[in-house]
Amino acid sequence: MPLTRTWTPGYPLDVRATTGHHRRGTGDPTMRFDADGSLWRTSHTLDGPGTLHLSVRTGTVEARAWGPGAAWLIDRFPALLGADDHPEDLTTDHPVVRRLHERAVGMRLGRTDRVWEALVPAVLEQKVVGTEAWRAWRYLLRRHGEPAPGPDPALRVPPRREDWALIPSWEWRRSGAEPVRMRTIVRAAGMDVERGIDHLTSLRGIGPWTSAEVRRRAIGDPDAVPVGDFHLPSVVGQTLIGEPVDDAGMLDLLEPFRGQRGRVVRLCERYGTRPPRRGPRVSVRDYRDF
């Protein structure tokens, strides 16, 4: 039998807008939205694997959780839904940001409190298109994750941090992840990253972009800016001033919002304007047959 809990947030809540950036592609085996908007999510918690299901009925969140990690997930799901977030801290006279902020009334910055599970897919996404990274994530989870507790056999729980280092090199190749990303994840698997999120960039292969991507998801950092992203500066620039910018230009545009820069980035990503395409798409590389 699952553990259950109901919780009524004291604020408007859009579950998909709040949690959607935790999903790595539509085929992510660790996370799924049902047609009715309910959320399924798995995690390898401090207590073991668990599956969480969240649905909203007349403003109340109904939660169910299965597995050894059920109590951990049930206790912390309000934080995933932004209970610790303070969107009112973003105060501005900027007309575009103010309009986006008003539109995003149900979007919160939640936190998973699972640094490792944010780090691995972020490393897989380094310097590649999302399709390539998500393909590797799906393969590795289906081959080396475990079936999720609960009623949905299609869901998978990510391996424990220690187990990522045991994945054979040929499996990384079959996933499409080249040796550089593989080595970064294997090295990091020997570190207790849960206690060292402020020092992730001291690990070889983890730079400011990866650190910011982890901070956004694991601790809901409202000021985390992923510098070095291929698309993000263009989206932020197009949204705020009507033209694409580079990283330096993006940081200049975000400086008035210091302390809440990550929130503005998230607003631009979800509700902003993307520049028109003027060139070919970045190709998806395939290392599986090398």
From TrEMBL:
<dbReference type="InterPro" id="IPR011257">
    <property type="entry name" value="DNA_glycosylase"/>
</dbReference>
<dbReference type="GO" id="GO:0005737">
    <property type="term" value="C:cytoplasm"/>
</dbReference>
<protein>
    <recommendedName>
        <fullName>3-methyladenine DNA glycosylase</fullName>
    </recommendedName>
</protein>
<dbReference type="GO" id="GO:0032993">
    <property type="term" value="C:protein-DNA complex"/>
</dbReference>
<keyword id="KW-0234">DNA repair</keyword>
<dbReference type="GO" id="GO:0006307">
    <property type="term" value="P:DNA alkylation repair"/>
</dbReference>
<dbReference type="GO" id="GO:0032131">
    <property type="term" value="F:alkylated DNA binding"/>
</dbReference>
<dbReference type="GO" id="GO:0008725">
    <property type="term" value="F:DNA-3-methyladenine glycosylase activity"/>
</dbReference>
<dbReference type="GO" id="GO:0043916">
    <property type="term" value="F:DNA-7-methylguanine glycosylase activity"/>
</dbReference>
<dbReference type="GO" id="GO:0006285">
    <property type="term" value="P:base-excision repair, AP site formation"/>
</dbReference>
<keyword id="KW-0227">DNA damage</keyword>
<dbReference type="InterPro" id="IPR051912">
    <property type="entry name" value="Alkylbase_DNA_Glycosylase/TA"/>
</dbReference>
